[in-house]
Amino acid sequence: MENEDDDPIIQEIDVFLAKSLSEKLYLFQYPIRPASMTYDDVTHLSTRIKPKQQKMEMEIAINTVSPNYCRSKGEQIALNVDGTSNDDTSTYSTKLMDKQIFSSIQAASNTTRYAAALYRKGEIHLTPLHGILQMRPSFTYLDKADTKFKEREAANEGGDSSQDEVEDDIKQVTVRFSRPESEKAKQRRAQSYEFLQKKQAEETWVHLHYSGVKDSRSEHERQYLLCQNTSVADNMELTKSPRDYLSMLMPPDVEEEKEKPVAPSNVLSMAQLRTLPLGDQIKILMKNVKVMPFANLMGLMAAGTESINVLRCIQQVAMLVQGNWVVKSDVVYPKESSSPHSGVSADVLCRGRDFVMWRFTKSRWVVRKEIAAVTKLCQEDVKEFLDHMSIPRINKGWEFMLPYDEDFVKKHPDVVERQNMLWKGIESKLKKVFSISNEDLVSRKQDTSSAPSVVIPGDQLVNIAKAKATENQAQLERTLQKKKEQSKQTSSTVTVLADVHIKEEPVSDEEPMDTSACDSLSNGMVNGIHMDESSRESVNGHTPRGDGDLVTKELKEFVATTFNKQYVLTLRELKRLFNLHLASLPPGHILFSGISDKMLQETVLNTGCKQIKVPFPPQSTATPEEQKVFALWECGDSHDQLRQELLDLFLTGHRLRRNLIQTKLSQKFGDALNKQQVDKVLKDCCVCYGGMWYLKGTVQS
Hints:
With 701 residues, this protein is of the alpha+beta class. The protein is built from 26 helices and 23 strands.
């Protein structure tokens, strides 16, 4: 009784449930706008809604005469979006950004607990909310501007951007037949983002009429927030027992758990993810990420999580590849699933993906065509496997996306050994399934323990090449010395010339190696040709008397032929082409007497070419010697002046856009210049990467 006296009832208020607007009442929120700055006095141009999806869009006018409005920016945005056209499809008909669109997203999927309350004459009238929407600015006009920009870029480049394509244009066409869809597959498809987007696009817009807060129509509609019949007999929803009424206000937690998804989606927050068991957390993370180092995985776990527990769980859903964890194939392709590209079953997809993973345990590189030839799967499926764990490199193949994790291998040798045993079992299964012979396995096998020795840095490759070249040079000099001694016995005037035969070894696609950096490894080599003591006298431009004119003639002929085909060459590329030219010459040719770099450059400058000092990309690692660029300045055709103007443009920057080049050349040559002429000189002197044009040799592919 004392407690009841301390909490007296001050007033009793009747609560009524109004249902006239229960299916039409929405609460709008503007999270990026201060509450003091409302849109009540702003002109609303149009409003539309998709009732089933609860999607709302509003067009609101912008005050273009406000001192805070930048008119030049508004004109620029309108020009970027609509261009110079003025038709019905234009977003901004006034050639000025004079409006903005607000688009809605659902702030809460379940609004049964929310209602709008109206207090009047000692009574509270509640109307349930049909939806809570957050209105945010929509920037779809930027997508339209970006589309127009890409169309202009494609038109300017004239289709030359195909040089950037990594994959083959030819695609295999596979015919597949649809199979009956299971209930689980239907549920997964209904929850997919693609299905929801399609469903949302199918619903038509319903256009609405907007009435301001002070309009008579708005005042009339607000009357429906009051319960029309206030008699108790007609409001049976609230005539419950105290226990039932309390249960309605505060449902038990079990009902909330039923509404939560069993497995979180890609948009689940880390806070929600950490409420799941540790095994489910790791499985979901690996299924989404595909490849992850163990250190990164531990960083995503909650504080205090033991690494031994994480290791126990990760081995159930992932395999160790080059010290990193790659999600298992049966997690990516569960049973009863099929390929969206070819329709093959999950078992076939898992075998093909396991083969790709196994190949990456042997090498940093794989070739897609070889994978497709072994697995007999379509190109799209193979590309999907490779996208999960590797990155394409132009003219090299597919490289594993993460570096070798040496720290994990050193810290957990027992886990590495266990994974190696698992891979041996998988290897034997793959050998039977794909009919791989022992000879193929031995030829491809590099290191069954996935040791980091298979990953050789570039500087080590150069050192190995230098050591090998020094050894070969010493052996060749000993051979030449023996030949000298033999020749002195027969004739004191005989000169021995060493003919070098260059054998081209096949280079594997898996480990491409560039040996062009080893052009001058020692004093005994000039442009890749070994010389003895007598032939070294011809270095630095000094050739034996009587043969100087013939050497100059042959060298000029090579330079003229090369630049008439290439037009622009770096010194490094020119030396490489010269070495290939020497390899094609018969033994004893006059050019084997030795050609120095200085003599080669002088010949280039005397053959109608010119050295141009163009800037290289900031990230370029080319040496000053490698940055020497030569161009054919005059070749006698009608494009000489146009080519010279193009080369002058690159003196100010290492890359240019096609439309800028066209504009500059048009200002110089006027209407006489056409697109075909510009295409001709661009292909002669430049290469295109990523929509930008670079001078040949100044950028690595």
